[in-house]
Design goal:
By secondary structure, this protein is mostly helical. It contains nine helices and no strands.
Length: 184
């Protein structure tokens, strides 16, 4: 076990707060990944990953709401279905592809979302929901999945999404190997 080093009481307080949220083992995992015993470096990565997840989850919700709106606007399912049936993203995806001909007729200017794109967005959503870090061992795959999310957001959300992703982490000393970014 790596003995984590603290510079001051504020870092100790932060550690005590985040070890309740993320666990001691997670801190050790980050320390080993970064090859450091410095809490400040570990904390930056944990906090960045959390902030990234909050942003991603919000935009995944926008994506899911858009898909539900398409299904309702095409009279495939009504609002009561989505309010009362507690459908998963996987079920919504199945309904979407089952009725893609109707969607194409009503929305001829919007391309049907590629199945691979939808699968990768759903995979990203599941990682966020199931405690998996977005930025460590699987950062390349997640950067790709984030790009799929960006590509399939409605135009009015794309610029803000890209901006928010690129801005987080800029205020701290964050290693490039753990930073998600969009090229301009």
């Amino acid at each position: 076990m790596i003995e984590i080093k603290f510079k001051n009481q504020a870092e100790i307080d932060s550690y005590n707060k985040y070890k309740e949220l993320k666990g001691i083992e997670y801190h050790q995992y980050i320390a080993k990944y970064l090859n450091t015993d410095q809490y400040s470096k570990i904390a930056v990565v944990i906090q960045y990953d959390l902030r990234l997840k909050y942003i991603l989850y919000r935009y995944i919700c926008f994506f899911e709401e858009y898909i539900r709106a398409v299904l309702m606007n095409c009279n495939i399912k009504d609002i009561n279905y989505f309010l009362n049936e507690n459908t998963s993203m996987s079920e919504t995806q199945q309904i979407y592809y089952k009725h893609k001909d109707i969607i194409e007729q009503i929305y001829p200017s919007k391309p049907i979302i590629a199945k691979n794109d939808f699968d990768r967005i759903r995979e990203l959503r599941n990682q966020i929901s199931h405690f998996k870090p977005i930025i460590l061992d699987n950062i390349i795959e997640n950067q790709t999945n984030i790009n799929f999310l960006y590509k399939n957001l409605t135009k009015n959300y794309q610029a803000n999404f890209k901006n928010e992703i690129n801005l987080i982490g800029n205020e701290v000393d964050l290693l490039d190997k753990v930073k998600i970014k969009f090229e301009n």
